[in-house]
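Pilot study result, target chain (353 residues):
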Amino acid sequence: MFGSDRLRVAREFKGWSKEELARRADLTGAAIGQFERGESTPNTSTLDKLASTLEVPVNFFAVDADTGAEVGAYFRSLRSTTLTQRRRARAFVQYVHQFVASLEQIVALPEYRLEHLRAEDVPDGIDQIEDIAANTRRGLGLDDANPLPNAVRLLERHGVVMVRNYSGEAKVDAFSVPFEDRSLIVLSSEKGKHDRSRFDVAHELGHLIMHRPDEEATKRAEDQAHQFAAAFLMPAEGIRHELPSRADWRLLLRLKQKWGTSIAALLRRSRDLKMMTPLEYTNSMKALSARGWRRNEPGNIRPEEPTLLRRAVDVAGDDGHTVEDLAQRAALPLAFVSQLLSNATDPRPPVHI
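Predicted structure:
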């Protein structure tokens, strides 16, 4: 068995063109094109050569499960991100989805519970987005007034799989893919930006709740996802009375620790909720830049790292399944699975009570 799209996914995971794969595998570009279009099938010797070159098991090409190759992704529209980089990141998440689908055959992951929260129509104003964010909080068991303790853990409990991106494309920001069985969120490779990472989680949740996937996100969709993230992490009812009317840095640092958002996001929220005038907001952002805080803010918050996959693998291990066994079952390279799990582990030491 040979799935032509499987060859394309493995090639794009490497970030190679058809010509580059052909050169490395000592084949012709025309042959690679024919294989990927399903016009011809490689013989056993050629298949072995392709598997070795792409560093995947031979049975990777025979996986007949639906890997969601045609499902769109919510990519950020970044001028510095090339189509090749996006394709490589997209292939990465297809590998992840393949592993999750295989893992679910032996471990029961949390039920996916976002589908019933999807908005019926794309919002056309900030008030609608505020309402959608409030409804989403309530649908996930949160109130309208208090900070969210851990955004990653909340979504993992509701069946969303999250991983860190290590596809090699550092310029690709966080993105999400709404597969039919469960959505995946890929966080950026920047582990040190904890407030940004937390906001990214809420941003991608906004896409999953409000939008339909598209390879190129529009500015309008990105703005809406940002507005959703702000309303989701900083609900108006809870934060409005705490926000300053002008830049009070000590207060903003305390609010950053409490709400888990950046000072820049707090200032923007203060403006959007009309606690701060547009002029004062502009002056505050200029002051933020003058302090060098646009790139590196003080008062970093605690990290939120995905743990669902690592815990699921631990459960599988209790039943006798090693990481090597899981990689083999998923028809994926052991190196990929090992790296995936190392990026899905909470780096903080556990507290046992």
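One observation from the pilot: The CA atoms of residues 13 and 88 lie 5 Å apart. A full batch analysis is planned for the follow-on phase.
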